[in-house]
Design brief:
Strand content: 15-25%
Bound molecules: adenosine-5'-diphosphate, zinc ion
Helix content: 25-40%
Low-confidence stretches: 114-120
Largest sheet: 7 strands, parallel
Number of strands: 31
């Protein structure tokens, strides 16, 4: 190719398309060279797309005459700070997704539009102190004195004071942070004196400031004081002038959590979760980018927040599966948080009562330093766990006599009881007593759930809804019965049994609005005897100090699930739900109803020794060569036509095998499948997969890199959708 002057003016752009490559564009003559990471708007197959400048080395086989010019360069400074840019580059490589897709999904949608981003500040947003400034007038001194006590709205000031406030704003002494940045609450609380183990944990974290690559696992049961350790560590980071990122599970981000941080730390806070609007996200992004946020509390996607001067990352309940994104760009926020901390050389603390086997494996390998909190912080007994063998018992709507008696005792003693049943709706099946037919969703081939109040059958996999039939669709008999118990049925029974006490059902059907859930739980936390019935939403996060009894219904479902993580998850869930009981002065009780009281996993849960449980689970995984002892990726695909799906996956498997034959380490990667996915059919689409495993990461990722390029560039039937899931989880 002849050398042309135009080659100096070519930029490579990462675009939001699945194609795993960068695209070359010409830079117009008058336009200055954009920096790496700056967004540009470009023409792309008849559309305009926004992409990121990701390189300056044109592809070798390039014909500059065919290149299109960039429409516009959208900013001068990149949206992402360098560490975030680096993290996203890594994520694209690790998860084998196009860089453009990854970069685009990290930026709030509100900022993807091509117009410049406006930071909206609420009209009468309060002012806060930005730097220590000297008052030049008597009024300014008055304002500064007021601001020292907390934020101040201009509307709350007398006219001459308002003038002084505006003067201070002009001088940059005070500022109005965007709505998301919340100040410390007005009534600060004092940290308790830490116990020896907490102090040792804090010391270890503080020592890690400045020491490269210090990742820690803080292991302690619910109530052992992990949050106090986070607070002390965050305090230390803030004192160094650095910011703090705290990741919490989807359900763990409660007003209580925020309040606890706000009442302890003198800092500018922000909260980031999935319910924010696009505009709020854009505002938040700008504030974080400008260094106006000191402490960010957020769910999964907050790992991509453009925090300035980050000094500490905390991942609370690190085992929680909500850190894994289950569609689109399937990343693990926990794993990326570890990477971000390691890139920055800052400490990261993963906290859990029941750590994931992945993290425990890293402890064994010496990559995570384990910090223990063995006791509950306030002297308290662990709850007593009991199994109730329901094989022999007469049951009333899924509840044993023993459970009903225990609930009554608890209420009479003035405490609260929680019934956990991980199935919402009235009954999981509608079945015909006459011919045995079970009404199924035609799209998913799974039983439909009866929802009595809504008078509907609903499929929990595809949200299909239909009327409850009056006769059996197969034999026309009217002997249709709702079989099994969901939360709706249990709460009906409980309301009849315990009419004198309030009964609250908490599941996705009763709490569609996030606020209502928080509100109800706050009420319960402060209130007297009552009964809570809910799904696993209830097991996590919230501090409900008056709960003295937890009844677990239907735990057996988790003992025989296909997912290889099912036992781990069940153990984590049961230990966590047990942690709900007896946080207050009364020691708690946990009753687990089961048909399998002799099951080894349940026996271990009785002893409440997660260490023992995890050692056994780890042993199982080692023998069966499953993660964390193997590296795994799943090529998931779906299609309306079953044989088309099989053919496509077979050819993908064939490709993988051919690539492996040319690789240095021929047999390093095992390719299994095609096999049906755990949900083989969903909303009329067949789902199947290839599972790829290797003892180490390198050969697997080398294969995936080539395979994804081949699959993306090759023609495939239009109806086939596929996605690669690296370090997969079943949702
Ligand atoms: P975790 O995060 O492990 O569930 P928390 O940090 O929430 O535990 O602590 C549980 C309770 O014990 C909280 O009410 C907390 O204020 C209190 N607590 C924690 N550490 C101490 C301590 N050293 N002294 C007194 N109370 C403490
Ligand atoms: Zn029938
Ligand atoms: Zn369905």
């Amino acid at each position: 190719m002849p050398y042309t002057a135009a080659m100096h003016r070519i930029v490579q752009v990462a675009l939001p398309t699945p194609l795993p490559k960068l695209f070359d564009y010409l830079l117009p003559q008058q336009t200055p060279m954009p920096a790496l990471g700056v967004r540009v708007s470009v023409p792309f197959s008849g559309r305009r797309l926004i992409g990121f400048v990701a390189g300056f080395t044109p592809s070798p086989d390039l014909d500059p005459a065919k290149l299109k010019p960039i429409h516009a360069v959208l900013e001068t400074t990149p949206l992402m700070p360098p560490d975030l840019w680096q993290l996203l580059q890594f994520a694209a490589r690790y998860y084998h997704r196009s860089l453009g897709d990854v970069l685009t999904s990290a930026v709030p949608r509100g900022m993807r539009a091509s117009k410049a981003v406006q930071v909206r500040v609420e009209k009468d947003a309060p002012y806060v102190l930005k730097t220590s400034g000297v008052a030049r007038t008597y009024e300014q001194a008055q304002i500064l004195a007021q601001l020292a006590l907390g934020p101040l709205r201009a509307s709350a000031c007398a006219p001459e004071l308002r003038k002084a406030l505006l003067q201070l704003a002009k001088r940059g002494v005070v500022e109005r942070p965007p709505a998301q940045a919340l100040a410390q609450s007005a009534n600060p609380s004092v940290a308790p004196a830490l116990n020896a183990e907490q102090a040792a944990a804090v010391a270890a974290i503080v020592c890690a400031f400045g020491a490269p690559n210090k990742a820690m696992l803080l292991q302690g049961v619910t109530g052992s004081g992990k949050t106090e350790v986070y607070l002390a560590a965050a305090h230390a980071a803030l004192a160094r002038g650095q910011s703090v990122l705290v990741l919490v599970p989807e359900i763990g981000l409660t007003p209580q959590t925020l309040q606890r941080f706000q009442s302890r730390l003198h800092a500018r806070f922000a909260v980031m979760h999935s319910a924010l609007s696009d505009g709020e996200r854009a505002n938040f992004w700008q504030a974080a980018r400008a260094g106006q946020i000191d402490v960010l509390l957020g769910t999964r996607s907050a790992v991509f927040a453009p925090m300035q001067n980050l000094g500490l990352i905390v991942v609370d309940e690190e085992h929680d599966s909500s850190y894994k994104q289950f569609d689109g760009f399937r990343y693990s926020a926990r794993d990326l948080a570890l990477k971000r901390a390691s890139d920055l050389g800052i400490p990261i603390v993963l906290g859990s009562a029941t750590p994931s086997l992945e993290s425990l494996h890293m402890v064994q390998l010496g990559r995570l330093q384990r910090l223990w909190l063995h006791q509950r912080a306030r002297a308290q007994n662990m709850p007593a766990i009991q199994l109730i063998d329901i094989k022999m018992q007469q049951m009333d709507q899924g509840l044993s006599k023993a459970a009903l008696n225990a609930i009554r005792e608890t209420l009479l003693a003035g405490s609260q009881a929680l019934i956990m049943r991980n199935r919402r709706g009235f009954a999981p099946r509608l079945s015909c007593q006459h011919c045995g037919h079970v009404v199924q969703c035609p799209g998913c081939e799974r039983p439909m759930t009866v929802h009595r109040a809504a008078r509907a059958l609903r499929c929990h996999y595809c949200d299909r809804q239909e009327r409850v039939p009056s006769a059996c669709p197969q034999c026309r008999s009217d002997a249709l019965h709702a079989m099994g118990e969901g939360t709706e049925r249990i709460s009906e029974l409980i309301s009849q049994h315990f009419a004198e006490w309030p009964v609250h059902r908490i599941d996705r059907d009763t709490t569609s609005r996030k606020g209502s859930f928080d509100h109800l739980l706050a009420q319960v936390a402060a209130g007297g005897p009552c009964i809570l019935i809910g799904t696993q939403m209830l097991a996590k996060g919230h501090d409900l100090p008056n709960i003295a009894l937890v009844v677990v219904v239907g735990a057996d479902d988790g003992l025989f699930a296909v997912d290889f993580r099912a036992s781990e998850r069940l153990a984590q869930l049961l230990m966590q739900v047990a942690g709900r009981a007896g946080r207050a002065e009364t020691p708690g009780r946990v009753l687990i109803q089961t048909q399998q009281p002799e099951h080894p996993l349940l026996q271990k849960i009785l002893r409440q020794d997660y260490e023992e449980i995890s050692v056994a689970l780890m042993q199982e995984r080692r023998i069966t060569e499953l993660p964390p002892f193997t590296r795994m990726a799943i090529l998931r695909a779906d299609c309306k036509d079953f044989s088309m799906l099989q053919t496509w996956l077979k050819s993908a498997a064939q490709r993988a095998k051919i690539l492996l034959q040319h690789a240095h380490s021929k047999n390093a990667v095992l390719v299994y499948g095609p096999m049906p996915a755990s949900m083989a059919k969903r909303a009329h689409r067949h789902h199947a997969q290839l599972v790829l495993c290797a003892p180490t990461r390198a050969p697997l990722h080398a294969l995936l890199a080539e395979l994804t390029v081949q699959l993306e560039l090759e023609k495939k039937p239009a109806d086939i959708h596929y996605a690669l899931d690296v370090d997969p989880y079943d949702d």
